[in-house]
Each structure stands twice: as structure tokens, then as C-alpha cells.
Design a protein that fits this description.
Elements (H helix, E strand, L loop, with lengths): L12 H32 L18 E2 L16 E2 L9 E6 L4 H15 L5 E6 L3 H11 L5 E5 L3 H5 L7 E5 L5 E6 L4 H19 L2
Parallel strand pairs: 3-4, 4-5
Antiparallel strand pairs: 1-2, 3-6, 6-7
């Protein structure tokens, strides 16, 4: 009787299995790493300290229509907002807001103060907000925004990684995101957090 001879595995078989395992595990490892950052932020007790992978990156490409009917002091329509509008000299602030957002209402008086004192140019994005609600909200509280883009479906918000408004992005003249602040802004946060962080960001990325 002839003995069965085992067929030896080809040299490429083990590396191929390893490649398959890596392809399966890589998405899980990435997910766990990102989740770890979020859990860390929650453990620290301050979601504003969650890291953003967008810092140092160019702002997403977008072109949003204006909030029709929202006019400035001159009676002219406040223009919409696109990526190219962010590529102007100096640092500017991009604020995601909505009429249904209680934090946005809390920070709004401070945004009005920033605009009134010309501390920093502010552009706004009306995020997932009905047109008439946005108009009524700004008519009631005032408009601190030089430009307003309407992100009705939240697509631009997704591109910016927005997960809970208000969120403020600080963008330099290149159109690069240099700092992000999550949560309502007020005078204390501006002095103790935003101003020193912006100074460091400007030193690193430029105005």
C-alpha cells in the first residue's frame, strides 16, 4: 500500500492569510483608536478637549446658498458662504448654529459682542435648521455673521466633523483649520482658552 503524501503548503499561503487577517482587523483597530480618543475626552469630563483630526488640514470644499431674506444694515442680502470665502487675509471664525440649539442661544450675545467690537470676522452656517426658524432667530437676537451659508441637510457639517453644535472653527488665510472650539463661547472661554490656543495655532500654522 502506498502512503499518502501530504501536499506541502506553498510559500505564499501563510503571508496571504496574514494579509486577509490584517484587512479584516484594520478597520476595527482604527475604530477602536478613534473610540478611545472620545472615551478619553468623556473621562476627562470636558468634550471641548476631544481631539480633531482636521486641525492643520485645509477646510472642506463647499458652496452653500445664502439665508434668503437675511439682510444687513444696508438692506442688502447677506451673502452665502463657500470655501473660497474663507481664503481671505487673517484668521476668521466659522460658527455652526441653529435656532433649536440651546448652547447657540447662550453664546449668541458674545458673538454679537465680538462682531460689534470687530475682534474677528465671523461667518455662520445654519445647520439643519428650517429657513423661517433661522430668519426669526437672527431677527430676534441680531446677526453677528458677515456671511451665512445654509446647510439644510448637514452635509457640510459632516465634512467638518460636526457632531454637536455650537462648534467654532478658526481658519487662516490659506483656508486651513488651525483651531476648533466645541461648546458655547463666552468671555471667560475666549480669554482663558481660545486666545492662548489661537496664539499657539498661529505660531504653528500662520495667519
Amino acid at each position: 500500500m502506498s502512503e499518502e503524501t501530504a501536499t506541502p503548503e506553498t510559500p505564499d499561503e501563510e503571508p496571504a492569510k496574514g494579509s486577509v487577517r490584517l484587512a479584516v482587523l484594520l478597520p476595527l483597530l482604527i475604530f477602536l483608536a478613534i473610540s478611545g480618543f472620545f472615551v478619553w475626552g468623556l473621562i476627562k469630563g470636558d468634550p471641548r478637549h476631544l481631539p480633531s483630526v482636521l486641525i492643520g488640514k485645509m477646510a472642506a470644499q463647499f458652496d452653500l446658498p445664502p439665508l434668503e431674506g437675511m439682510t444687513g444694515p444696508d438692506g442688502k442680502q447677506i451673502p452665502g458662504l463657500s470655501t473660497k470665502d474663507l481664503k481671505t487675509p487673517g484668521v476668521k471664525m466659522l460658527s455652526f448654529f441653529a435656532s433649536w440649539c440651546t448652547g447657540c442661544r447662550a453664546e449668541h450675545p458674545f458673538l454679537m459682542e465680538l462682531a460689534r467690537n470687530k475682534v474677528i470676522p465671523i461667518a455662520g452656517i445654519a445647520y439643519k435648521d428650517p429657513h423661517d426658524k433661522s430668519l426669526a432667530w437672527l431677527a430676534e437676537l441680531g446677526n453677528p455673521y458677515a456671511r451665512i451659508g445654509v446647510d439644510r441637510k448637514g452635509r457640510t457639517g459632516i465634512d467638518f466633523g460636526v457632531y454637536g453644535i455650537p462648534e467654532s472653527f478658526f481658519i487662516n488665510s490659506e483656508g486651513r483649520i488651525i483651531y476648533k472650539y466645541i461648546g458655547p463661547l463666552d468671555a471667560r472661554a475666549w480669554k482663558n482658552t481660545v486666545t492662548p490656543e489661537l496664539k499657539k495655532a498661529i505660531a504653528k500654522y500662520g495667519k
